[in-house]
Design brief:
Layout lengths: L4 E7 L2 E9 L40 E4 L5 E4 L1 H5 L8 E8 L9 E9 L5 H14 L2 E8 L2 E10 L2 E7 L21 H13 L11 H14 L20 H15 L16 H28 L2 H26 L2 H30 L1
Parallel strand pairs: 1-5
Antiparallel strand pairs: 1-2, 2-6, 3-4, 5-7, 6-9, 7-8, 8-9
Helix pairs in contact: 3-5, 6-7, 6-8, 7-8
């Protein structure tokens, strides 16, 4: 690679000559050219002088600054080199901050920084290792390609990487972006979204592959060969308006589990706080059922004679316990089942006390 610029990093009294290399390759991205639709001819941008109306060669093109009244002031390379800016040749580090303090919206073009000469190797390694151990990135200012910019330096493996940053005033405000009305999200919906986030897993190599470029190249090849393009049949993503947010979240979790070959959780398990949500709900239902049956047994005991009341109450209470235990066993909610048994035990004790009281009245 050829360096795009050379300058020095100023780290206190330490100076590190470096060469900057483009870290990204825009040529690898998909790009199109403009065509004349009538005959397929290429439409080009020709540099034309606005005064003469003639095409201008690249060696005749310079740079100029346009003032507020549209006056064009020519500027040469010597004019720019004479600017009284220390950032023209030096990136002076102004502060060291945590990487998370940098707003990603400010991130611009990236450059690899290599040493420019043998003498720069040791201070280069010193700055790199110090930032890596201290978990900090360096912030400074540098003039590149005719303009001054903020810059961030950070270690990536064994290389220092410089990221050009936008100025804070270049970040637009968020006015008019947020919904006008406040939206309230339920706690169980947030838990369901967190469960869905956990089910995504890590990025794979297939996820970071440029499938759009491959498909476009297949279309171009098919047109050149006068044939139909051939594409692999992929899984069609569901689309449409979401009517039930919780159902959509739960379906998404199950779809992610099926994609990874995992056992799909039952309905109601994914979403409301994990796999135990359905079991807890079933346990609460069993406890309520047992309580209702126990209450009915207590009312019957008050209306019937003492001896038959005790026997009937015991029989029905055992049925309530069996019903609660069966439901609890199916849903693995032992705690709620125990609560139902405790309620039934209290009913049995109450019935026994009433039987004793009835015998006392009869004897009297």
């Amino acid at each position: 690679m050829r360096p795009t610029a050379k300058f020095s990093i100023s780290f206190g009294l330490v100076t590190i000559p470096v060469a900057a290399y483009n870290a990204t390759d825009t040529a690898a991205s998909v790009s199109f050219v403009r065509l004349h639709t009538a005959d397929g001819g290429r439409v080009r941008n020709q540099p034309v002088c606005s005064l003469e109306g003639t095409e201008v060669s690249p060696d005749e093109i310079g740079r100029g600054y346009r003032t507020d009244d549209d006056t064009l002031v020519p500027l040469t390379d010597d004019d720019l080199d004479a600017l009284p800016l220390p950032t023209a040749k030096t990136l002076t580090i102004l502060a060291f901050v945590a990487g998370g303090d940098i707003d990603p919206l400010q991130m611009g073009k990236g450059y690899y920084l290599g040493v420019d000469g043998p003498a720069a190797a040791k201070p280069y390694a010193l700055l790199r290792d110090a930032m890596e151990r201290h978990q900090r990135v360096g912030l400074g200012k540098i003039a590149l390609h005719g303009r001054e910019s903020l810059a961030m330096i950070r270690p990536v493996e064994d290389v220092l990487v410089m990221q050009v940053l936008l100025w804070p005033h270049q970040i637009r405000p968020m006015t008019g972006v947020l919904p006008e009305r406040e939206v309230k999200v339920a706690a169980n919906e947030v838990r369901a979204a967190e469960t869905l986030m956990d089910s995504f897993g890590e990025l794979s190599e297939e996820d970071t592959h440029d499938h759009y470029r491959e498909a476009l190249e297949e279309i171009v090849a098919a047109k050149l060969a006068h044939r139909e393009p051939e594409f692999e049949a992929g899984e069609e993503q569901p689309a449409g308006q979401v009517m039930d947010l919780m159902a959509a979240l739960q379906d998404s979790v199950r779809a992610a589990q099926r994609a990874r070959g995992e056992t799909v959780e039952a309905d109601g398990d994914a979403g409301a706080g994990g796999a135990g949500g359905g079991a807890r709900s079933a346990g609460r239902t069993a406890a309520k059922t047992a309580a209702r049956k126990t209450g009915a047994a207590r009312k019957t005991a008050e209306r019937q004679p003492a001896k038959s009341t005790a026997a009937g109450t015991t029989k029905r209470t055992k049925g309530a316990v069996a019903t609660g235990g069966a439901a609890t066993g199916k849903k693995s909610a032992a705690a709620e089942g125990a609560g139902a048994k405790k309620t039934a035990g209290a009913a049995r004790k109450t019935a026994a006390d009433k039987q004793t009281a009835g015998r006392g009245r009869k004897a009297g």
